[in-house]
Each structure stands twice: as C-alpha cells, then as structure tokens.
Amino acid sequence: MYLNVKQKRQIQPKAVLFLSAVFIVVAVLITGIVMLLTRGKDIEESLIKMPFTSEETFFTVGNTVVFSGGSTLTCTDTSLNDKWKIELESNTLKFSAGKSLIAATGEDVLMIFDAQGQNLFSKRIDEGNINSVRLGMDKVAVETDQVLDDKTISYIVVFGLDGTDLFKLDISGKYVLDYGFDAGSKQLYILELDISGAAPISRVTTYRPDTQSMTGVKELKDQLVESVYFSESSVFTMGIKQLSEYSSLNTEGKEILVYGWMIEDICDKADPIFVYVPSSGNVNIDITRIIKSSGDEVKINLPPNVFKILDTGEKIYCFATNKIFVYTGEGKYLKEYDIPFPIDGVRRAMDGFVFLMAGGEVYLLPLP
C-alpha cells in the first residue's frame, strides 16, 4: 500500500527577501511618480522673453502681441515672428487695444488699425482733445474735452470703422467713471456718479448709437458702483456693497453681498466668473472668493505671498513671487510650479497665456 501525501512547499528566506525588495521598489516608484505629478515643476523652458520692457507699451490683439518702440508699432506671434510693422509719424502717441482693434491717439488725432495692421481710418477730432478711447467689435468711442474761456465742453463720440460719426453725447458737467460697449457693440454704456442730490447716485445708462436713442437706465442709490460688465445675456454692476446681475437695465436684479471685498479678475466667458479678494489693501492675498454668474461661489485659502489671481474657467492661477499655485475651477488644489526668478507683476495676455514681469523684463508664459 502506498500513501499519497502532498507536502506543503516552504518559501525560502531568500525568496521572501527578494519579494520584499521588489515590493519596496514598486512602492517607491509609485510614490515618486505621484510626487512628480503633484509637486512643483520647472517652467523655465516654457518662458518666452519678449523684445520689450515693462516700461514700454504692449498689449495683445487676437493671438498676437503688439508693442511700441519709438515711432514703430510691431506685431509678433508667440514664437517672436514679426507679423507686421507700422511706422508712425510721432513717438508720443498713446495706444489702446480691443479684441480685434488698435487705437493710436494724439492730442486731437485718432488712428484705428485692425488686427492685421491695416489702417481703417485716421482723422482729427473736432470736439476737442482726446482723453480716452474705448474699442468695440465694429465701433470706436472717444471721450473729449473742449476747453473754452468760461467752461469746458465734454463729449463721447462714437465712430464706425469707416470713420463715420454715428453718435455724439454731451457729458459736460457729468462725473463719468467709465464707458464702453456691450458684448456685441450694439450699445454704448455710461457709468456716472451723480452728486447733485442729497445722496450720491450711481447711474448706468445705455444708448444705441445706430438709432441715437437711449435704451436703458439703472440708478443705484445705496452704493458706489465701480465698474460695469456686459456678458452676452446679462449686465453686471460691481459696487462696494453688492455684485448685481440684470437681464437688462430696465429689470430687477439679483444681488450678492460683497462688502469688504473688491474685484480682482473677471473670467470673460459666456457665463462670466468673478474673482474677489479682501479690500484691506494688502499686497499679498490670503483668501479669495470665486463667484459664478449662477450665484454659486467658493472660497479658497491661499498659500503665502500670492499677489495676483487669474481665472480661466477651467483653472484658477494664483501667482506668488516665485511660484504659481493652480486650482481647479471648483477651487480644489491641483499642483504648484516653480518660477526660476522673482516676479513683480502679472498681466493677462491672449487666451492661454500671461505676461510675467521681473525687474523690467517681460516674459510670455503659456499657462500650465
């Protein structure tokens, strides 16, 4: 008789040590990969040093960068390939930019160029000296002062892109805080502070230049409105007490209390997002409120030394002296990036890019 007995195989100590070593190596690799994905990254290779300083005039139009050097206006792409150059007769001109237009202004001279550098029109302004310019999609507004012996007459004049006068509004004696166009350039808006009565009144008025008619007015008697924003479907007034949204100026609005906070950034989307920071005046920002047009909001406690915040909708970028902290659009921390040198300024550029300023130098950075 034979007995069939199965004996258990014993694992040798060397095998145990080998398996343990493999497990440790795999664990270390996984941990390293996670740390690489979440820790700060070097973005030095992404930085593009621009051929101008922060003291010079520069801005973006479409997907290009335009800058002024002396009497030359130069347009370049993100690879620093020049797209066009314009030689101007004066090196004392001031420049303004919109999404697709550029304005060059002298004391009483206005020149408008498109994104391809073509001069759409040039003219002298009869209504006085130019104070400021606002550019729409297909219209240009100019604020002027005409100084007479006993008074000053002020106007806002609207031109078409062929230089035709479309509308002239007398604003003499009014304290105009801001003006501009709505999202489609169909309406001109004026934000003024009326101090003629017992209590100051913030008044927003809209006009249709094509028909030379007033289309709406909103008076806010209990707060100072600092700015106005037009989305595709709503009007937002940003006051020292409330952020208010109106479907039109002739309707009642919904309000969000923002007393103690001030506007830092606006994400210019179909449904805009408003970034608020404490109005304490501190250089560094320790907390921010991200307010959506729906009324939903989130607060983010920020790392040290953050001085600028930009919201792209998908991500929130918080800039410190030598780091960029990135959060999701819902305010969840994603990762941080090291900046290879201290920066002292940040500005929006074209979509997906920002300008970083450092000791007078300017760099273009694709947002990570």
Task: Describe what this molecule looks like in 3D.
This protein is globular. The longest helix has 26 residues. The protein is mainly beta and 368 residues long. The chain is built from 1 helix and 33 strands. It has a 5-stranded mixed sheet. 7% of the residues lie in helices and 53% in strands. It has a domain of 107 residues: TolB, C-terminal domain (Neuraminidase, 6 Propeller), CATH 2.120.10.30. The N terminus is likely disordered. The termini are far apart.
Describe this structure in a few short sentences.
With 368 residues, this protein is mainly beta. It has 1 helix and 33 strands. It has a domain at 262-368: 6 Propeller (Neuraminidase), CATH 2.120.10.30.
CATH architecture of the domain at 262-368: 6 Propeller
Strand order of the largest sheet: 1-30-29-28-27
Helix-and-strand structural type: mainly beta
Please name the fourth-level CATH homologous superfamily of the domain at 262-368.
TolB, C-terminal domain
What's the CATH first level of the domain at 262-368?
A: Mainly Beta
In whole angstroms, the N-to-C terminal distance is: 77 Å
Q: Largest sheet, described in full?
A: 5 strands, mixed
Low-confidence regions: 1-9, 21-41
Query: What is the average per-residue confidence, as pLDDT, rounded to a whole number?
Result: 89
General form: globular
- What is the number of strand segments? 33
Count of separate DSSP helical elements: 1
Helix content, binned percent:
under 10%
Radius of gyration: 28 Å
Question: What name does the CATH topology of the domain at 262-368 carry?
Answer: Neuraminidase
* Percentage of residues in DSSP E strands: over 45%
